[in-house]
Amino acid sequence: MILRAQGLGKTYKRRRALTDCTLEIPAGHVTGLVGPNGAGKSTLLNLAAGMLTPTEGTIEVCGGRPGSGTEQLAKVGFVAQDTPVYAGLTVADHLRLGSQLNPNWDNALAYQRITKIGLDPAQKAGKLSGGQRAQLALTLGIAKRPQLLLLDEPVAALDPLARREFLQDLMEAVAEQELSVVLSSHLIADLERVCDHLIVLMESRVRITGEFDELLATHYRLTGPRRDLDTLPQDQHVISASHTERQTTLLIHTTAPILDPAWSVEPVTIEDLVLAYMSRPQPRRALEVLR
C-alpha cells in the first residue's frame, strides 16, 4: 500500500478536522479525493505529506511515517492549494532550489518539462499566468521523482484549457514514472477523466473508498412503483432515495443480482455516486457497511 491510515484523526483546538479515518490506497493508482469544503481533504493530504502530525491514530506513507526524515520526505511530492511558488524567483531559480532540496532531483526532466510547456527560465514566477504557475508547481513535484504525488485542488482556479493541459501533463507523468497520485478536487468530471480510485470524505469521515470499476459495478439506480424501504432485500443498501406520490427512485449498493421485475435498473456514473454519498444518509440503511 502506498498510503495506509488507521483511526486517523486531527483536531484543531476544539474543531475536528478529520475523524477515525481508516483507509488503504494501493500503489499505482490515481486516487480522486472528493468532498465538500471542510470535509478534511486538505488535512488528510497535509498529514500524508508530513506537514501536520496526527492527534490520534496512525498514517503510513511509502512504508514510513510522513515527515520522519530526509529519505521519507524524498518519497512524497506535494502541490498545495493555490499551487504556491515564489513570486520574486525566476523559473530557473525554482529549479535550482528544487535540485538543492531534493536528493533524487531530475534536472533533465525539469528542464524538459518547462521547455515543453513554454516557460521562460528567466521569467519571474509572479509574472506567470495561473496555468503556468500550476505547471511550474507540478514540475517541481514531479522532478523530485517521488513515489507518491499529492495534489490539493491544483486546477480549481484554472480556465478549462489550462486545466486540460495540466491534467494531460499529469497523466503523461503518471505513465512515464509509474507514479501513485492522490488528487483532491471539486471537479468530478476531471476526476473521472484521470482517476481510477475514489475516496469520498464527508463531515471529516471517510464515506466510501474503492476502485472506480468496482464501485460502478456494485451501484445501481432503481426506479419503480412507490416502495417502503423496509421491504427491500437486506443486501440492497440504500445510499439515496426520492419519492413522488406513485414512484420511488433509489441509488443502491449491492453485490447481488436485482431480481424484482418491478424495478427499472440503470447504471450510475461516478458523479452520481459522489453526490449520493455527499447527501444526507438514509436512516433505514447504515452506510458503515461500505467503510
UniProtKB/TrEMBL annotation:
Top-rank taxon: Bacteria
One annotated GO molecular function: ATP hydrolysis activity
SUPFAM superfamilies: P-loop containing nucleoside triphosphate hydrolases
Coiled-coil residue spans: none
Gene3D superfamilies referenced in this protein's UniProt entry, alphabetically: P-loop containing nucleotide triphosphate hydrolases
Domain called ABC transporter: residue spans: 3-228
Keywords, in A-Z order: ATP-binding, Nucleotide-binding, Transport
InterPro entries reported in the protein's UniProt record: AAA+_ATPase, ABC_transporter-like_ATP-bd, ABC_Transporter_VariousFunc, P-loop_NTPase
Protein name listed in UniProt: ABC-2 type transport system ATP-binding protein
Organism: Kibdelosporangium aridum
